[in-house]
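Support request, please re-run this one:
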Amino acid sequence: MREHGGNLDLAQQRFGGRAEAWIDLSTGINRVPYPVGEVSARAWTALPSRAEIEALNQAARHAYRTSAPLVAIGGAQAAIQLLPQLASPGRARILAPTYNEYAGVLSAAGWDVQEVSELGALVSADLAIVVNPNNPDGRNYAARDLLALLPRVGRLVIDESFADAVPHVSLASDADRPGLLILRSFGKFYGLAGLRLGFAIGNAADVARLAAASGPWPVSGAAIEIGCRALRDDPWAETTSARLVRDSIRLDAMVQSQGWALIGGTPLFRLYETSDALAAQDKLARAYIWSRVFAQKPTWLRLGLAGSESEWTRLGEVLAR
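Re-run finished. Output below.
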């Protein structure tokens, strides 16, 4: 298991407490989730029909503002696991530092993997990976610069898992271009990571390969029903995006007393430069607030956003000590 946020079991082993007592800010998952409401009995008891899956696909096209082919899958991570099946192993170049599953999955499948620090270094790769906005530092790249890579790489995969709150960065509307594949996560923005839902958007050939590899029922009936509802709820998405922007500014102001410097982030998480990230994590953890640290970057601390006012109050009190 590679290093990830969301490892609350580790926090409990070290500091105690029931899971319900913790505020888990180690991920970029919205802590004010979409209101699920009632789920029909059919969603739990029947295999999803083609019509239901297509309804989910249409809802995703609506939310992501695209008419391109797409396939629903069990989270963006499931799509990452299937990437090696799109082509024979070759040269993979990953814009880094970024989400660590890409390098691990591709290396295990026999790809020659190199992490690079500039967009230009992706040129001539058989498979180029860009996370936009990037995790963990929030970097994002202009559409024209990303599209300019298409004739110069074999296939360009853009992971837009954190793009929902900043839709202007998305290339989903261009996803049917040959050689371009967009990955989207449902669970982060909608705060329903446990539902395990995501999408791959691209040209018809790539989407067909991923659909075949993922099998006949890649997502659950509950994921389809809730996803259809949430992805078409434009007022909720607009209100949530505005709140997340306000709350990210609120968090930046709150940590100023610690002397931490903002490296970057998105409306779902912030990355700070600290004097000692493990010490900062320890301070928060003693109040049952979990954060993300990075073994290779001992001064980096990533925080998601608190949800309820009681969570914000608790976080503020700890930081003020």
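The domain at 41-232 is CATH 3.40.640.10 (Aspartate Aminotransferase; domain 2). The chain has a mean pLDDT of 97.
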